[in-house]
Design a protein that fits this description.
Elements lengths: L7 E8 L2 E6 L7 E4 L5 E7 L1 E16 L2 E12 L2 E8 L3 H7 L11 E7 L3 E7 L2 E2 L16 E5 L2 E5 L1 H19 L28
Parallel strand pairs: 1-7
Antiparallel strand pairs: 1-2, 2-4, 3-4, 5-6, 5-8, 6-7, 8-9, 9-10, 11-12
C-alpha cells in the first residue's frame, strides 16, 4: 500500500559541546558561528535530545574538504526523526556507545551533552544516568587503546576498540530494536562534516 509519510527528519551534529541543528539567520534563537572555512553559519543549540532509539549506523561522508566518518544514532520522538551524528572516534560517540548495552531500549532514552575541558555525552532514563558497561577498572573484553607515534607526536589509536564497540552494538543492541523499527537500515547524508567537532583528544582508556 502506498501512502504519504508525515515524518520529518532532522540532522543533528555535535559542535562545541552542544547538539546542533543548522538554521537560517532569521530562525528565532539561532546563534551565529564562523566555521573552520571562515563562513558564517546559523545554528540552534541544545543540551539534550530524547526519544526512542531506532537505529545506529557507521557513516562516511565525502566532500571537497575530505572524508569524514561518523556514528549516527537515529532517535524518534513521535513523528519526528533525528539523525544524531557524532565523530566516529571521539568521547562523544563513546559516551553513548558504552552505555547503550545497559539501557532499556523499550523505553525512551535521553542523550545529554556538556563541556568542561572537553565535550562529553551520557544517557539517562527516568532522570537516572545509565551506567557504563565498560569502565577503566572493569574493561572486560574491550581492547585498550594503543599508544602510537605519528610525526613525532604520541597519540592513542583506538581502531580495535571502536571496532569492538560498534560490532557489539550491532550484534547485541541493534539486533533487539531493528526488527521493530520502521527506520531499518536507513542511510542518508548527515550535515556537512566540516561542522562536526574534531576527535583528536585523548580518550578515557
Amino acid at each position: 500500500m502506498l501512502e504519504n509519510s508525515s515524518e520529518n527528519r532532522t540532522y543533528v551534529s555535535v559542535i562545541d559541546g552542544k547538539f546542533t541543528i543548522r538554521a537560517e539567520k532569521s530562525t528565532p534563537k539561532a546563534k551565529e558561528r564562523q566555521n573552520k572555512n571562515g563562513v558564517l553559519v546559523y545554528e540552534l543549540q541544545f543540551d539534550t535530545i530524547s526519544g526512542m532509539l531506532e537505529n545506529v549506523f557507521d557513516q562516511k561522508t565525502e566532500n571537497q574538504y575530505g572524508t569524514f566518518r561518523n556514528i549516527v544514532f537515529v532517535i524518534r520522538d513521535n513523528s519526528e526523526l533525528y539523525n544524531v551524528a557524532m565523530p566516529y572516534s571521539s568521547r562523544e560517540s563513546k559516551g553513548i556507545l558504552m552505555r547503550l548495552p545497559n539501557a532499556d531500549l523499550k523505553k525512551q532514552i535521553k542523550f545529554k551533552i556538556a563541556k568542561k575541558d572537553y565535550a562529553f555525552t551520557w544517557i539517562t532514563q527516568n532522570d537516572v544516568t545509565v551506567p557504563l558497561k565498560w569502565t577503566k577498572e572493569s574493561p572486560g573484553e574491550l581492547p585498550k587503546m594503543v599508544e602510537v607515534e605519528i610525526k613525532g607526536k604520541k597519540t592513542f589509536d583506538d581502531t580495535l576498540q571502536m571496532k569492538y564497540l560498534f560490532d557489539f552494538i550491532q550484534q547485541n543492541v541493534l539486533s533487539k530494536i531493528i526488527s521493530q523499527s520502521p527506520d531499518q537500515g536507513f542511510k542518508s547524508p548527515a550535515l556537512p562534516a566540516i561542522d562536526l567537532s574534531t576527535a583528536d583528544d585523548d580518550l578515557p582508556f
